[in-house]
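Re: weekly structure request thread

Next one in the queue (105 aa):
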Amino acid sequence: MWIANILAGTIVLVLGIIIRAFNASGLIAGYNTASAEEKAEYDEEALTGFVGALLIAASAILLAGGLLAVAGAPGFVAGASWLLFLVVIIGGVVYLNTGDRFGNG
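Done, posted below.
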């Protein structure tokens, strides 16, 4: 199980860094298919910054679970990290889609 944590955590970390550092809004689902008029309603820099930070934080959870499992923590730690990963991702998506947090106006 720790291998899955390390591998998935690394992939999510790389995606988070790419989105945050390079403002790669094309990697954000939904935003990449929006029309130019719809995209104009959002602050792209703030949006990519938040999504990148969310992915980096979520990857830290997976990596920590994998590293703790390697270090000899009980077996449920790696599995619990996946549950916490899902909670963070779902919470971040709910936060992202409620209110007008990333609008231009």
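The CA atoms of residues 41 and 104 lie 6 Å apart. The chain has a mean pLDDT of 93.
Next request, please.
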